[in-house]
């Protein structure tokens, strides 16, 4: 009940942050997706994956365009020659990260890029998946700082692409902020008090 209240409040609050043209229907378990201009600060490649999907081609610590398969998320900016990123194609890579919020730099998001969330480690128990098309932004050149909020905790994520690559950097997972949990608990308490007072007056 608390998570449902948190989901409703977060969707209402997050609606203002979705970029124009963003898809109205979010994938199941996804509370909000926000996209921002790509940052020019320090970037971090992903490092070694915890698990693989198929037999992917995975490159870590890339700088600049590595055509034909990978385009820098910072293409078209001054960061193209300095920012590092990772790229995967022809399969997927996974990371054991726990949280309800995932933020990262997503390069050239398109329908070939699939991000999946799992309830267990090493890709066990698929929770939900989305593609670059779910962001509601134009793909192709460049990238976005993407933040995805779920209503259920995940323990691992995978990044997969069939053509040509999924470029990513600065992958970070965080739990539900304690303030939101406290606020959700307060709302649930108020709801119970309201129900109780209605019963007493009836």
Task: Summarize, please.
The protein is α+β, with helices and mostly antiparallel strands and 202 residues long. Strand 7 and strand 8 form a beta hairpin. It is elongated.
Give a short account of the largest sheet: 6 strands, antiparallel
Number of strands: 11
Mean pLDDT level:
83
Number of helices: 2
- Structural class category: alpha+beta
The CATH class name reads Mainly Beta
Could you give the order of strands across the largest sheet?
Answer: 1-9-6-11-4-3
N-C termini distance: 25 Å
Percentage of residues in strands: 35-45%
Element pattern in H and E: HEEEEEEEEEEEH
Structure description:
- This protein is an alpha+beta fold and 202 residues long.
- It has a single domain, classed as Jelly Rolls (Sandwich), CATH 2.60.120.
- The chain is 18% helix and 38% strand.
- The chain contains two helices and eleven strands, in the order H-E-E-E-E-E-E-E-E-E-E-E-H.
- The protein has helices spanning 2-14, 178-201; strands at 30-37, 51-53, 57-63, 84-89, 91-95, 99-107, 113-118, 126-131, 143-154, 156-161, 166-174.
- The chain has a six-stranded antiparallel β-sheet with strand order 1-9-6-11-4-3, with helices on one face.
- A hairpin with a 7-residue loop joins strand 7 and strand 8.
- Helix 1 (2-14) crosses helix 2.
- The longest helix is centred in the last third of the chain and has 24 residues, at 178-201.
- The protein is elongated.
Key words describing this protein structure:
202 residues; Jelly Rolls; alpha+beta; five-stranded antiparallel sheet
